[in-house]
Amino acid sequence: MAKIEQLVSIIIPFYGKWELVHNRLLELYKIIPKGQIEIILVNDASPDTSYEGGIGWWQKLDFHLIRYKQNKQRLGFGGSMNAGAKLAKGDIIVFHSNDVKILGNFVPDIFVANENYSGKVLIGEEIIYWDSGWNTFIVNSQKVTVPYVNGWFIACSKELWNEIDGFDPIYGKFDYEDIDLSTQVLEKGYNLYGMYSKKLQHIGAQTISSLNVDRMSMTEKNKQIYINKWLNRLPEIIDKSEMSDDD
């Protein structure tokens, strides 16, 4: 078991749905020992004000340090995560969707993975290495499936974060930021790592419904953006990648 000697910054963005954030904070309060983490809440220009009293209440507790950032305009998932990362003081950064339940202390698992790969690894609760319908592309008449860390929970060292370009803002509000981030890491010859710890549970379709028409059209648009950005480089990236997990 890795010793917990470094600080972990946990970034949780939100757009409305304050009750999800409140529940995550309660779980962190109950499960993660004091001194192991700081929490960064990023308000993505939320249209309601239900969060105002709640954030102040949580910040007054003498437990985890909670930083707060309010975007002047809506940046979406990736942009909000990037904004939170700029405030992070931790040696490890965790990008945590607010619809992911915390069932156990995942911090030691992150440190084990990070130490095993000398800080050059993108960590998730799971890696999608099969054709999910999002990550398979036709390159020179051949199917290429790109492995990626599922975006609802991603962690990496501050060192690795500073070496990549972060979440690319070209994807806007919705999808493909996690596939793009994973591809950036693979391009550099680094690894993806799945913890499969069962200490996290993705509720799913809570922050944005999978049936949202705007999302569906944006997903198709973002797929084309990803193809335009990466297609010519994908065969080389996949050939030199060495995905790792402990499934």
Give an overview of the whole structure.
The chain has 247 residues and is of the alpha/beta class. It has 8 helices and 14 strands. It has helices spanning 18-31, 52-60, 76-87, 107-116, 158-163, 177-187, 213-230, 234-240, and strands spanning 8-14, 37-43, 65-70, 92-96, 100-102, 121-124, 127-128, 136-139, 142-145, 148-149, 153-157, 191-194, 200-202, 244-245. An 8-stranded mixed β-sheet has the order 3-2-1-4-11-6-12-14, with helices on both faces. A hairpin with a 2-residue loop joins strand 8 and strand 9 (142-145). The longest helix has 18 residues, at 213-230. The protein is globular and about 60 Å long. The chain starts with 7 loop residues before the first strand and ends with a strand. Residues 243-247 have low confidence and may be disordered.
Q: Determine the oligomeric state from the structure.
A: single chain
For this structure, what is the CATH homologous superfamily?
Spore Coat Polysaccharide Biosynthesis Protein SpsA, Chain A
The tally of beta strands, per DSSP, is 14
Structural class: alpha/beta
Poorly predicted tracts of residues: 243-247
CATH class: Alpha Beta
Order of helices and strands: EHEHEHEEHEEEEEEHHEEHHE
* Rg calc: 18 Å
Give the amount of beta strand, in percent: 15-25%
Tell me roughly what share of residues is in helical segments.
25-40%
